[in-house]
Amino acid sequence: MSRLSGVPVSPVYLVEYVRMVERRGIRVTRFDVAEPLFDPPREAVEDTLKAIGEGVYRYSPPRGLPELVEAVSRFLERTRGVEYDEEEIIITPGGKFAVYAAFASLLKPGEAA
Known about the structure:
The protein is mostly helical. It folds into 2 domains: 10-58, no CATH class; 66-108, no CATH class. Helices cover 44% and strands 0% of the residues. It has 4 helices and no strands. It has helices spanning 13-23, 42-53, 66-80, 95-106.
């Protein structure tokens, strides 16, 4: 038995499996990866290329870009009438981490969701 036999297959494998199924004419609605069914707005692509050209291509700070955290704080106060300290706001790199962070902040080790 291989030492790797207990390691689960990467979720990325599902991408190839789904493509194989779609080639058979079966429509698949995906909820496993953040791969949209539409192209990004042209402005987003242009701004992304501009940022890369300016050297902005590293990971952001763990809690999110300070300017974005501040903007979210102001937005919540203006639109919802609630005040959050910037230390109470986390900008996550995606939905999966947001769900993980929510559970990690609510559950104790050993508890199940």
